[in-house]
Amino acid sequence: MIKLHDVSKSYATPAGSFTALRKLDLEIQPGELVAVVGKSGSGKSTLLNMLGGIDTPSTGTVTIANTQLRVLGENKLAAWRGRNIGFVFQFFQLLPALTAAENVMLPMDFCRSVAPRERRKRAIALLERFGVGAQADKLPAALSGGEQQRVAIARALANEPPVVLADEPTGNLDSGNANAVLDLFRDMASNGTTVVIATHDRDVARVIDRTIELADGTVTR
Amino acid sequence: MKAIVSFAIAIGIAAFATVLASYAILTRELNQGYLATNPASATLRTDAIDDALLAAVAKTSGVRDVEAARVVSGRIKGGANGWRNLVLFVVKDFASVRVGKINPEGGAWPPATGEILIERDAFQVARVKLGDVVTVRTANGPERRVRVSGRVHDVGQAQARMENMVYAYATLATLEQLGERPYFDQLKIVADSMDKSRIERVAGDVTKVVESRGHKVVHTDIPPPGKHPHADIMGLLMLMLAAFGLFVMLLSGAIVVNLLTAIMAAQIRQIGVMKAIGGTRWQIARIYFAQALRLGAFAIVIAIPLGIWGSRMLCRAMAVFLNFDITSFAIPAWVFACVVFVGLVIPLLAAAWPVWKGSGVSVREALCDFGISETSFGVSALDRMLAGVSGVARPILLAIRNNFRRRARLVLTVLTLAAGGVFFMTALNVRASMIHTLDRLFGTRKYDLGVSLRADSDAGTVTRIVRGVPNVKYVEAWRISGDPYAVIAVPPSTRLLAPGVIRGRWLQPGDVDAMVINSALAAKKMPLAHVVGVVREPFAPASAYVPLRGSVTNSLRVVLANNDAASIDRAKGLIEEALAREGIRAGSISSKSDSRFGFDQHMVMIYVALIIMSALIAIVGGLGLMTTLSINVLERRRELGVLRAIGATPRTIALMLACEGVVVGVLSWLLASVAAWPLSRLVGNGLLMMVLRSGLDFDFELRGVAIWLVVCVLLGAIASVVPSWHASRQQVREALGYE
């Protein structure tokens, strides 16, 4: 379960202090598919960063699966992130020098969650599950946007994380690919993975369990 | 990153400044120092010179000054040390030396009768100190004990250590005490001109004056006017170093190319915006050219003090090598002007292409740019080939492939680092080749000692005498004569000489008029009769080998049963004593290691120079690699953020960057190893031709390849430290948001 208690986040900017999140209290249940919506600058990305241990709150606590992120050091946090969080980004962010399969295997390498001999097998299985098994040995430059996002989703699930965080995952896709990707997220959640999507996409409504709307760093709905 | 690049440029400029300043200082000081001694324009050797002859020569037209002198060869032994070769300069009046002046540097001046002065550098060769009593034996005199009473500096002599020779100075009375007849036989004249043809005319006139008075001129020596004997070698060495300085600067220019290319790529949107609001290509280019100028200016500020310091070090080393003193390290203004000019122009030239190309991008292209991390790796055949490489851990695989994403940058970085490797391996190869060449040369000489006799003697008698000396295993009698090349008469069936025959054949029993010449004599292309073969003898003077006829000898070759240094030294003394007992005087007795000493000294100098050069290039290469890795980190900031987001620890990132550095290092090592073979052969031969006028028997030192691999791996790893540190300090959130 994801639990945020009294979380605030402020940044020092040349123009003065900027508060991205204000006293946020939030709970997300296992297997829930949640959409975080709001205008640009509302705090969506900051919230996702908090959930993924990419950023730390100025005040308050973030607890995920009974782990308080604040107490983890940089190295432990990286290892924890690799095992517990799967990231999906708007621009896919596949490593261009690795093939699709290698991109999927990389989190397994970092976390040693899967035996070395099993890694490729698992990567291929994941790619096939998301319909890009035939592209396993291609470099990202040879894949379409939709294919790249599917590979990115496969990579996010490489270590079977309990939580997947997706920041505008359909922002760079056409409607056909966007719908397909949303369906994949729905499948994941149905299989017990907690999925949090930060998005502007209205079509997300058809697959989500709940919407969290942010405005000026606070939950409005 | 800009500081690293500036420092790399600074090293290049400093190397250039060092050489340029050294050239200015050394040429000025060497010529001033040498001319201050009032060197002889010509030296004429005749028989005994009296005051009347001297006065007549002084009155000859074109003679500005004249002095009588004598040079006697002999040997010197201090305490328990072995004999050393001695050149004794006999000075008429120490109080008023006018031609080829020597400077007292300690102890007595002038020396009393029974005393000698020794050249300051020769103390180490003689292994004596002021006040020691030494044994001297001249060509015609018995062994006599004299005291070393003073130390002098003789600019006109080459470094004694390099020549393995002791230079000493004494009065005519001391010469008489040493058993030689007291007279002067050399006329050292100073002409009224530095023009060589004028000097030749004056020397001709002096010869007529000398011969008109019943004396005979047996030899006239006219050195290059006003030039130190080693000035040409110094000029060549300086030329070589200047070329090296420019080379280092060009390498540092390659780093500027990398940096400016990265800056232009990173700021492409900014350029697009500037163009969109009316900026012209030239206006935009000027902004980045100004950056290159700032890099150069900053580098100059660092480089000038470094160059001044470096020039002092180099000048001191060269002064020791050329045996002269530097009175002033003042650097002329033109050197600073050159350094500033080159220091500013090189970064500008290096920046020219990336800046002009970057500033020429259209507004549409610039504003549509997705950012520098969106490189299209995977498009070319090489990318696809690299994608097929597997079998290593993914992070290492990623490091290997990442290096190939910016190929121009990779090539420049690899070339810079490889240049250091080539120099390093060249240094080791030249050293190995020299050793190999000398080993081969001395390997053809199957004897331990060479004994020259003062006068022709009966071969049977001297062979019998020497054979009776303890530890002597075999003796062969030879005869050496000739001018302008040495004619060495050896038994055709000699067991003590086995030179490498290049053409024709070696001497055979039954040969009468046959002649075998060495490569140095063959190179002179003199018309010679009866030549049956040519042998290779690197570093040897022009010589011809003929069959020994008759029973007269003036040179012996001796093989010893035990040929360790102590046994050789002992045998030298015993042979000399044995010959002396029979009334035969040995001129000099030298071992193979005595002959080799000078070569080894020259070799050390070349070797050290090359090692210093390779170290400097390696530093520049290392800084280049560090710049490249820093640029890579900056450009792939978002990617590194993604890696951290999916579980890579800072340590893993650091390891990957270290792998990237090591991969570049290994690539440069591969290139350097391949290039080192032909280049070190070329450079080695060139250097040897310059310094020793001889080619090399090339030898490739495999140890150099192994050592350079270790250096490259270490450099690669060390160069990644700063970029890794920067990468680890980045917040994942900031990295992910970076464009």
Q: How would you characterize this protein structure?
A:
The complex is a heterodimer of chains A (221) and B (739). With 221 residues, chain A is α/β, with parallel strands linked by helices. Chain A has 6 helices and 10 strands, in the order βββαββαβαααβαβββ. Chain A is globular and about 50 Å long. Chain A starts with a strand and ends with a strand. Helices cover 55% and strands 17% of the residues of chain B. Chain B has 23 helices and 19 strands. In chain B, a hairpin with a 5-residue loop joins strand 6 and strand 7. In chain B, helix 1 packs parallel to helix 9 (281-322), helix 18 (592-635) runs parallel beside helix 22 and helix 20 (650-692) packs antiparallel against helix 22. Chain B starts with a helix and ends with a helix. Chains A and B meet through helix 2 and helix 3 of A and helix 12, helix 13, helix 19, helix 20 and helix 23 of B.
Can you count the helices of chain A? Answer: 6
Query: Can you tell me the overall shape of chain A?
Result: globular
Q: Roughly how much helix do the residues of chain A carry, as a percent range? A: 25-40%
C-alpha termini separation of chain A: 20 Å
Order of strands in the sheet with the most strands of chain A? Answer: 6-7-8-3-9-10
Instruction: Report the sheet with the most strands of chain B, covering strand number, pairing sense and barrel closure.
Output: 9 strands, mixed
User: What is the C-alpha radius of gyration of chain A, as a whole number of Å?
Assistant: 17 Å
Number of DSSP strands of chain B? 19
